[in-house]
């Protein structure tokens, strides 16, 4: 029994020493543990909340509780047909998104001026499996917004770490 405990303890120590962290977890800067988000789609808000929770941060419901305020402008997704079938239906669809964000600290000082983020993804639209395509589009949108969240956190980290020096 003592050996099992030692083995488990050793494995845990090795995993933490190598920098292992849960998938989706980010290394949040000190000034970004409590974030208030203004605007943005429900999908973006959901993905941002999930990313913060997995990284020991939180999306707060009031500006007063926030370390930083993330303002989202023009959160838009556009559907485009890239190719058509002989019947005139879309065979390939592109989802193109655009949003702009601004990061402000608790003192209302601008940390990141209004900055654009563009993202896009194409997928094949199988006319024989229409129901699954709706689900696939939802999954693709979530993945696209996860990438947007990574981009915003990365840009915020570089600004906040530069300020801390």
UniProtKB/TrEMBL annotation:
UniProt subcellular location: Cell outer membrane
UniProt similarity note: Belongs to the LptE lipoprotein family.
Membrane topology qualifier: Lipid-anchor
Biological role stated in the UniProt entry: Together with LptD, is involved in the assembly of lipopolysaccharide (LPS) at the surface of the outer membrane. Required for the proper assembly of LptD. Binds LPS and may serve as the LPS recognition site at the outer membrane.
A Pfam family this chain is assigned to: LptE
Self-association state and partner proteins as the record states: Component of the lipopolysaccharide transport and assembly complex. Interacts with LptD.
Name assigned to this protein: LPS-assembly lipoprotein LptE
Biological process according to GO: Gram-negative-bacterium-type cell outer membrane assembly; lipopolysaccharide transport
Xref: PROSITE patterns: PROKAR_LIPOPROTEIN (PS51257)
Subcellular location, principal: membrane
One CC-aspect GO term: cell outer membrane
Keywords: Cell outer membrane, Lipoprotein, Membrane, Palmitate, Signal
Organism, scientific name: Methyloglobulus morosus KoM1
